[in-house]
Design brief:
Strands 1-2 form a two-stranded antiparallel ribbon. About 70% of the residues lie in helices and about 0% in strands. The chain has 14 helices and 2 strands, in the order αααααβααααβααααα. By secondary structure, the protein is mostly helical. The chain has one domain. Helix 2 runs parallel beside helix 6 and helix 2 packs antiparallel against helix 11.
């Protein structure tokens, strides 16, 4: 995916704004899936900056999502009507809360990134996994955030426009950053970190920057999620949620933004499609029983896809080539 002209981004935002009133009228079940797709695109595209373009391996993305969700929810619950009770005022507070949640997640990313991103490979994955569990444990014991009871009562500000508007903005920022002169440092770190350091590139700076930006957009996604579902619980941001996001990045093709976005759409729709398969009475009984446990089918499909396309669905297509691949 090459750089997007600003005109395309503006056109997408205008399309989301115009289409929002019409999309809202569709079946609530499909509307829920549609907004879930937008949130998944934000999460997958932001993690792709870390795992795909910078070559790190983070397992704590759901922790940043949780920070954004709880921080933005706390702001809207506490100060949602501080500017007035009209729609414009509450929406303004909602946007400020989203940005505040993203900022909090970014600061957390900086706090984790500076000491831990000097690590590599499995060691970094373990640190980010531990961070995810720490965040979940802190929330579970934070009484102002609902602790184990969860936090609810948020106004449903999230709609089609905000979800896909931020999704488009996330993809735009990631694509333009990576394809910029400055952003080539991310690719240099991914290709050969030792060689990049020998060339005078501050690899830690690039890794921390990718981590902070990824965390910021994950926090935005968490805020959108919280103000759509209107109830959040610490278990919604656990290790398994992080794995789901990692699977989207790997399945789509690490370092390929278009592929990662496609995988986010596919893996959001697929479990719901398999849910409907279990109600097909014309299927053999044994197949219906398997379909009732749709996660088994979901897992089998992932295994088949990984065996047939281990580099991801779009791996190696439309992305800057690695130096090692060129040598081959």
């Amino acid at each position: 995916m090459d750089k997007w002209p600003k005109s395309i981004l503006i056109a997408v935002l205008l399309g989301c704004l115009i289409g929002s009133p019409f999309v809202f009228q569709i079946n609530p079940y499909y509307y829920d899936i549609l907004l879930g797709i937008g949130i998944s695109i934000i999460l997958a595209a932001s993690l792709n900056l870390v795992n795909g373009y910078t070559g790190q391996f983070s397992l704590g993305h759901a922790g940043f999502m949780g920070i954004g969700a709880y921080a933005s929810s706390w702001v809207t619950l506490s100060y949602g009507y501080c500017l007035g009770a009209n729609t414009t005022s509450t929406t303004t507070v909602f946007l400020l809360a989203l940005l505040g949640g993203g900022l909090m997640a970014g600061i957390a990313g900086l706090m984790v990134g500076v000491p831990s991103l000097r690590l590599k490979g499995d060691y970094l994955a373990i640190v980010t996994l531990a961070f995810n569990e720490i965040i979940k444990g802190v929330i579970q014991n934070a009484e102002p955030l609902g602790a184990q009871r969860g936090l609810g009562g948020m106004v449903q500000h999230t709609n089609f426009f905000w979800t896909f508007g931020f999704a488009a903005l996330t993809v735009y920022v990631v694509v333009h950053l990576v394809n910029s002169t400055y952003g080539r440092g991310f690719l240099a770190v991914r290709d050969d970190e030792i060689a990049a350091e020998a060339m005078g590139i501050n690899t830690t700076k690039y890794k921390v920057l990718a981590f902070v930006l990824g965390a910021f957009f994950a926090g935005i996604a968490g805020g959108l999620y919280a103000h759509f579902k209107q109830f959040i619980h610490p278990e919604g941001f656990n290790f398994l949620r992080s794995v789901d996001i990692v699977v989207m990045v790997i399945l789509g093709g690490m370092g390929n933004t278009a592929g990662v976005c496609f995988a986010a759409v596919l893996l959001t729709i697929l479990p719901e499609f398999l849910r409907s398969v279990s109600h097909y009475t014309w299927l053999p009984l044994w197949l219906q029983q398997i379909a009732e446990n749709r996660m088994i089918l979901y897992s089998l499909l992932l295994i088949v896809l990984m065996l047939t396309r281990p580099q991801g669905l779009f791996g190696g297509l439309g992305m800057p080539r690695r130096r090692k691949d060129v040598e081959k």
